[in-house]
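Session log. Operator J.P. requested a structure for one protein chain; no other inputs attached. Running the standard single-chain path with token output.
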Amino acid sequence: MAPATQHTATTCCYCGVGCGVLIEHDGEKILGVQGDPEHPANFGKLCSKGSTLHLTGDLDARALYPELRLGKGLARSRSDWDSALDHAANVFAETIREHGPDSVAFYISGQLLTEDYYAFNKLARALVGTNNIDSNSRLCMSSAVVGYKRSLGADAPPCNYEDIELADCLLIAGSNMAYAHPILFRRLEAAKAARPEMKIIVVDPRRTDTCDLADLHLAILPGTDVALFHGILHILMWEGWVDHAYITAHTEGFEALKSLVREFTPTAVADICGIAQADLLRAAELIGKSPAFLSLWCMGLNQSTAGSAKNSALINLHLATGQIGKIGAGPFSLTGQPNAMGGRETGSLSNLLPGHREAGNPEHRAEVARYWGVNSLPERPGLSAVELFEAVRVGKIKALWIACTNPAQSLPDQQKIHEALATCPFVVVQEAFFTTETCHYADLLLPAASWGEKEGSVTNSERRITHVRRAVPAPAEARPDWVITCDFARRLEQLLRPGLPSLFTFLDSESLFEEYKHLTSNRDLDLSGLSYAILDNQGPQQWPFPAGAQQGTARLYEDGHFPTASGRAQFLADPYCAGKEKRDTRYPLLLNTGRLRDQWHGMSRTGTAARLFGHAEEAVLSLHPDELRRRSLQTGELVTLRSRRGELSLPVQADENVRPGQAYLPMHWGNRFLKGLGTNVLTQPAFDPLSKQPELKLSGVEVSKAELPWQFFALVEGDVQRRFEALRPLFETFTYASLTLTGRERPALLIKAASGEAPPTELLAQIDALLAVDAGPVLAYDDPRRTVGKRVRIEDGRIVSIRLAGETAARDWLKGLWNDGQADADLRRWLLAPLSTPPGSNGKKLSKTLCNCLNVSQDAVCAGIARGLDLNGLKQELKCGTSCGSCVPEIKRLLATQPVAVSA
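Structure written below.
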């Protein structure tokens, strides 16, 4: 008899909103998910990514057992946990004895739970004695950390999500909130609909879905945010829209800032930013006259060599207008990962210690050392992410432990990252998915538990802590991250401090939380009054939540007192500095990177769900139509995209949302999906001097047509992950190769490739065998002279596999036939013909999936509009936009541009 279905409450594992999720499971397997209506972050709503969590994490992509190799040229083989961790402890101990504690390093993740973070920090600093521990949060939120600390005294977002609904004027800077934080965007849409007088300003070089909700879009030139904010402040002062009483009572440094921004006149700023002077004046007026002004920002501000200055320049606007510490107002950073906040709290950046302490502060080091029961903590500054991997590359770091992150996809200047990983003497990768690009370099691969399989806590963007509960056990021998870390630490301390009491006697995640929380006592983030029981009984809580508190703290700085030495907030007078790379004759375009609607980060999890590729099937470069005309390019053609660091081959598309002189490419594509090391082979490692966050948003590039006449297309359904793993290495010799997923109920692997000449016949034979088109019920055509060959496999009256080589004109309508599950007899004789459209009307090119939740295509929406349906009619008839709502902005654009039937 099957066990009864159960529900377990937890949070989503994607962005920093921290949505509550109810997991439906049978005790062994996750069966479905739904939004938790009780959770204050989302009240039951989930985005397209969160709503498909149960469909991701394919077991065929999971790391299931420890794997070890004893030499770089050898293959890993299965090991047991004792042997694997003993080996790791011996290598680390030997390395530390011979080269010192700073010869090893740890690189961890905003996807970890707070308890995992704490274990890693104690391991690195108290046991190993190094500050070489950094997180991929360095790539997304470290500039916001510096901005908050310099301006307000502590890394503490002062607002909560309700303020999004209560603001009168809302500024969104450097965030495509509609894609990156869709649940919060839904709340904003609803607030705007309820109060149309609410004003929304969006600052973004590119016109995104977020801009469709805006009253004013400031399409500034990339990297000019500081000039923009200084220019707005100049106007606020000129017009008398600043709060002098607040400035006098609660701030310092205004006179220096006032002197600086005097030069940022509307004329000068409009020229620097590339916007109309009238739009600049309008933005200042909306902010200056607003009773409640809220700002939201994300990677567009942070991922910059001037990220810290951008953050402080924006916060200056709030301090100057007194718009902080009250309802609907304040500077509010949107966190990029589910527990980047928890990482910042526990000290998981190289310059931090637990409880928002500084590793460079002797008093802070002494406090934590006493609490941990060790003599001292390391004084030498730790290396941040970019610095750390450069130290690996040049041989200074000889043992590297990577957990729950994929630097071989996410860091800039990927050529050097791959070189570093390839040459590092010992690389440990603690990971749930063996398919990541980084796992290729693992000397030791340790299988970690994933979402729904472990217990702990996370902190979301509004400082709200949620207890994460385990729903099902981890598969095979995978273990929770803190368990792996502590097991390794106990083995290592026997070698480094034999005979001394263990620092890692934790029995469960709760014991880690209980030890950690007291390190926050009397700090700005005090959560010493919290416990798993309180979180379970009273629900998720915002810190501060000190001992004796009855509830969390909704807003900070309501009394105008700030955690600085003087108790006053600080105005920062940072000059405007342009980006490190500018347009020039060799690289006349500036490349911006960003997010797709239905994918997340390096796609290690979302990339296992075929339906999440329905909206964006492959990596495509976006250019303004003028740039395509200038280069004699057409949408769909393959191009070579070059920067000073590397190059990629990929298709191009015309996109009027991108300004001339700029280019746009989603950040998600790594070497697994796009041959050539992916998007970040192009991006630059230059970083902000204070936050050490790299400038991933701005790189000089050039685009030219790729002459790749020999093209390849394949589609095969079934056993997708295993086929992916076997086929991906066979495309290394192709100049262009894209491997993604497609389909819904019948997931399939989709391959597009091209090269200057045909590959060897032996290679094609290997590919054919893996595509299952080398034998059986296969229609075949070969023209050796033209190096053209085609195969279509038909089973039970429908297409199950396609391979077109040398000539691929029919690929779109053949894919449409596959999707429809048909291959009728009348069409069969045309399946191998060089036709870009099928004979008659039996075939079609698939349009993209507009509504992923309800599987509604763009063609279906356009057909509904042509029949006269408005948004409500489309929702009622097609159900699109009625689930997560991510497709609504795109539907609105179609309603504005598509022809509508006219009654006679």
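Operator note: The mean pLDDT is 96.
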